[in-house]
Every structure is written in structure tokens, then in C-alpha cells.
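thought: fold this chain, then report.
action: predict
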Amino acid sequence: MKNPLPTRSRGAEVSRTVRAAEWWEFKLSPVLATAYATAFLLKISVVSLLPSLLLALAALAACAAYVSVVNDLTDFKDDLASGKANRLVGKSRASVAALLACCVLPGAAAAIRWRGEPLLLSLYLASWVVFTLYSLPPVRLKGRGVFGLLADASGAHLFPTLLAVALVYRRAGAADALWLVAAAAWSLSFGVRGILWHQLGDLRNDEKIDLRTFARRHKVAWLNRLGNFVVFPAEAASFCLMLYHAGSPVAVALLCYYALLTYLRKRLWGVNLVVVMPRERSHIVMQEYYELFFPLAFLLSSSWRYPLDALVVAPQLLLFPRRAAQSAKDTRVFVDAFKLILMRIGGR
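observation:
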């Protein structure tokens, strides 16, 4: 009889199967950052929101895991035909059913918790609904052009962001219409850019199985122009409006620092910046800021009013460590190089 897998190995296998590395930091950290920024705008302590935010984080993680499993389940034959990796290969029906149950049950628990709050419940369930329609036949919006694009962007970014804003509004007992519109425009644009990037990266595989995604229905050059001159400007404008309306000097300072870090990577290491077109040795523009500097900026800003909010910085970095570790590593390299240059100048 074989020994069971160690707990850590089982956890790693489950994480791999639900593709957590593809969505945990990319999608959830910006959602929490929006909640922190909304709290700062409305002068609410982040610490006072922690129970609600932790529930939202767990609920959204369950939804994201569900999306990954259902996508791989409905794409199984297509992935095998196109040669694309599918994480359900070798999994029994019982294990897939167990995975789905582990996603749906926490989601159902969150829905029950919000059953008396129609706005929160609707925003949360909207992600489940659009992603189910995105993947499952006969609707299968994934192959229906712009409808698939908007469904993915809404389920992955728009609805979770609005849920985060609504949670803070509920706690504050007040709302800010301009902030709501700006956050909605930013998250939807960012979501559209993300799914465009994903579909462009999958073009060859989708061509093999004749999957009619939005990217396959249009020329690559046109899609690149759409991302560069329509989607990203809308995203940047709405995000700048959010930063201006929130009024955090720390957020602006960290944006300048991010720009410097990005410039040094480009100048010294040849790292490419991309908007929607995947390339080798590339960074997606603003992704690092949204995941790392955006939440840090508003946690630090809020801690000036509410010192206990500074205690949330460490958990934030522990929950989402990948970007923080890479940024710290790159910064250390640049600082060491700068020190070496100064020493050489001083030795002349």
C-alpha cells in the first residue's frame, strides 16, 4: 500500500490543479487594494474591515478556483486536440467532483452569509454566473467573440472590485458615486486587457481547434491597436482619476518609484513592457503596481490616521509574496550597482 502524499505535496497538487499561481496575486491583490483605497477615501480603518475582507478573499478564491476547474473540465478535449496542457489529465471523475465541491461549498457558505444583503450577494453571484456561462455549453461565451471578452473581464475583475467597494460602503454607511464609476471603469478595462493578453497568447492553440474567441475574430495588428490606444488609455485615465480622488501622496510616490524601477529594468536588462501583446522577457504594464504598490500605498496612507492599520502590511505581503520578493530583489541589485558606481567615482 502506497504512503499517502505529505500534506504539503497534496496542497501543492491542489494549488496546481486549480491554477492558483495564475490568479491568486494577479486578481485578488488588486481587489483588496481597491478596498483599502475605498476605506482611505471614506476615512474608515482597514482593521475594522478585516472580517469582511477576509470573508470576501476566501469567497473570491473559491470562485476563482471553480473557474479554473470548470475551464479545464470543459476544455479537456480541446486542450488534448491542440496540445495544450490540461491539469485534469489523469484525474478521476471522483477527484474532479471533489475539487468542484471544495470550490462550491465555500462559495455557497459566503452566499448564505450575504443572503440578507442583496447588493453584495448579487455582485458575488454574478462572477459565478458569468464564468459558468463563459465555459459551459450550450452558451459557452468563450467562443462567442466580444461576449466572452466582456464575461471574463467582468467575472474576474469588475464584479469582485465592485464587491470590495460595496463592502466598504456598507461599513461606512455612505457611498461616493465618482469613486464607484472610476473603479468600475478601471477594473473592466484592466479585465479586458488581461483577457486580450491571454487570448493572444493562446492564438495558435485556438486556431488548431477553430475556437472563435475575440482574438481569433480580428487581426493581431488591430487587437494591438485596440489595447494600446483604447483599452489601456481608458484603464490609465480611470485609475489616475481614482488616485486623484483618493488624494494619497504615498500612492503617487510609489507610482513614481514603480516607473523608475520599470525604466531601469528596460534600460539595463532589456525587459520589454507589454500592454496586450505577449512577448519574451516582458512585464505587463502596471501589473506590478496593481499587485504590490497599490495595496501598500493605501495601507501606509491609512496608517497615518489609524496606526493599527500598519499591522495589515505584513499579512498583505505574506499573502501575496511573489511580486514583493521580486521587486525587493531587483531594487537591491540596482542599489548595489549604484553604490558601486559611486565608489568608482569617489576613487578617481
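thought: worth noting. Residues 146-172 form the longest helix (27 residues).
final: C-alpha cells above.
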